[in-house]
Every structure is written in C-alpha cells, then in structure tokens.
Amino acid sequence: MSGMDKKTVLVCDDEIHLREMLAEYFTERGFSVVEAEHADAMFAAVAASPPDIIVLDINMPGTDGLTALRELRADSMIPVIMLSAAGEVVDRIVGLEMGADDYVAKPVDLRELEARIKAALRRLDVSDASTTKKAKTGGTVPFGRCRLDLDGAKLFAEDGTEIMITAMEFSLLRVFAQNRGRVLNRDQLLEQAHDRGWEHYDRSIDLRISRLRRKIEVHPTKPETIRTVRGLGYIFD
To answer: What stretch or stretches form a coiled coil here (predicted)?
Structure first.
C-alpha cells in the first residue's frame, strides 16, 4: 500500500491487548492505525483527523458501541465494522439497522477482519469514484420520495435536503438503479454491491434494505419503490 493510498483504521476497544494486536497486524500490512480505549477518545480522534474506517467494539464500559455508533451516524458516514461477542445476534442486528457496515465476532480472526475492512473500503472507493465518473445509468435516479445523484454519490429529499447514506447504502441503490425492473436475489445484491458473500441464515441484506426503505419510501412498511418478491428477492421498478 503506497503512501498516497495508505488508509487509516481507528480501533476503538477497551481491551488493550486486542488494540495492540490489531495495531501491529494492520501496521504490518500497510495501514495507519489509531487506537482509542473508549467512545470519547474515538470521537476526539475523528474530530482531529477522520479515519478511513472504524473498528468499534459493542461492549465497552461507559458509552457502549451501539450508542457511539448512533451518535457517530448523526453527522458522519465513516464506514464502521462492529466487533461483537459470538452469539450476540440481537446486537449485530441493531448495529446493522443503525448503519454499521459490517460485523466480526470475537475472538477476532485477523484475516477475516482484514477482508471485511478491505471490502468496506472498496465500497467507499466506488462511492468516491462516482464523483468523477458516471455510473452506467448516469445522472440522477428517482427513488420513491428521493432522488439519487449517481455522479455525486448522494441522496436528496424532495425539498433538496441531502439525506445521509453510507457507502454500502449508496452501492445498493446504485445496483438497483443499474438493474431497474429486474428481480435481484441476496447473492446478486451482495456481490454487485461489493459486500461479503452471503452466508447461510445471514439476513443482513434484509436489514440494509429495511433501513433504506425508511429513507426513500413514502410508506416504509408498505414499500412501492423497492419491493419484495417473495421467495426470489427484491425489485426496483
């Protein structure tokens, strides 16, 4: 990873041995690593110099990871990968609904975390590239009560107000825009949105689409823009 392309990973976890292990591992692989032992330190680091991605533990003393994520998402779309103890399914679901980009279970498999980080950064690169290169459909695309600017990688409400979306949310909307009128299953959506491969029983794509519906649909519980095709997948028409 060259100096110009060097990415910064902010690791927020109260376990010092885990922070040090992650810092050593990712530094050796060409990343710049910033450590934070609690949420306040994370916010201070973000304010001083926003990282490219954050690895955030769910279970921390004081402000927990989910609360920190909610506060972060109020004004920042920095990609976030949550660390959760094995079996904490509810916390993972809540994290995804709140805008986490991915999650990794503890004990952390370093190669898996590295793969998830690189996938999230690729999605971010795709989003950033849209500001200089048109997507296949080009221009803007209406999505329910909103309009997606494919060139600027931004979502706008009817009154022109920008609605904040994560890189993964933009990638999903872009995939739907490029496949209008076509039913897409979970495998296709995850693959084309540059997300990790779909794992058996993994319903994270459903949670992401549910979150998107709350932003673009007039009636999120009765979606008309991104519809569910029972047993097959989703369609934008």
So the answer is: none
